[in-house]
Amino acid sequence: MSPIVVAVDGPAGSGKSSVSIAAAERLGYAFLDTGAAYRALAWLGLERGVDLDDADAVVALLDDFDYRTVPGADGTIVHIGLHDVTTAIREPRVSAVVSDVARIPAVRSALNETFRRLIDATQVPGIVVEGRDITTVVAPDAAVRILLTASEEVRIARRSKDLAPAQAATAGQLRERDRRDAQVVDFMTAAPGVTTLDSTDLDFDQTVDAVVALVHERTGA
Ligand SMILES: Nc1ncnc2c1ncn2[C@@H]1O[C@H](COP(=O)(O)OP(=O)(O)OP(=O)(O)O)[C@@H](O)[C@H]1O
Ligand SMILES: Nc1ccn([C@@H]2O[C@H](COP(=O)(O)O)[C@@H](O)[C@H]2O)c(=O)n1
């Protein structure tokens, strides 16, 4: 049977991963972080010294992109081949270039196919899938579609807390990443049928509660 899909989109630092992981756990659902795949491909490009402005060279990386994920206690454990890149793909140097990879249409179609395969293979009743174009492109027919937002100021402040003091200045990087990503997909305005959840004035638990309540309301489960 097809899983219940909860699609969550939103800008950088809006809480998509952390809130989706917690909501999935409460619901007994699986979780899919689509940004991790874009980050892993960008990481591979950096490792290989590929010019990420060269679309053909980036697309060629897909032939050798052995991307694997395993659910971990704090989120998704990401491997490329035998190499654990879970931490490396979150480094500011990857965040700084991931949009270059994500703007390439052939990359988007290939990764979207991967995401749909992973969704179809879900072994539990549902899956929370988060990214930028899940509500609109990857799973537009999802049972629950959410645009998770928060003011830019609050998102930067939350992100600063995640980073080591030496890296705190890079929290502002998310503004530039949003600007570039928004040229490719619209994750700032809710498409028809998508519910906007603004967490600016909500704490973490209140935000998770709101997602879980919406899933119960929409699915009756
Ligand atoms: N409602 C909230 N109140 C306080 N902190 C929150 C809230 N939602 C998320 N956070 C915190 O904000 C930070 C950013 O969240 P998270 O990494 O989940 O965002 P994201 O949208 O997945 O970001 P990115 O797109 O950059 O990967 C985390 O430290 C998370 O715990
Ligand atoms: N559906 C998606 C998901 C992500 N991206 C790109 O990946 C980058 C990293 O995503 P995070 O969720 O980990 O921040 C993001 O900045 C986008 O460039 C995407 O295009 N579509």
UniProtKB/TrEMBL annotation:
It is found in: Cytoplasm. Its main location: cytoplasm. Coiled coil: none annotated. It catalyses: CMP + ATP = CDP + ADP; dCMP + ATP = dCDP + ADP. Keywords: ATP-binding, Cytoplasm, Kinase, Nucleotide-binding, Transferase. It comes from the Bacteria. ATP binds at residues 10-18. Residues 6-216 form the Cytidylate kinase domain. Its EC number is 2.7.4.25. The keyword 4Fe-4S does not apply. Belongs to the cytidylate kinase family. Type 1 subfamily. This is Cytidylate kinase. It comes from Pseudolysinimonas kribbensis.
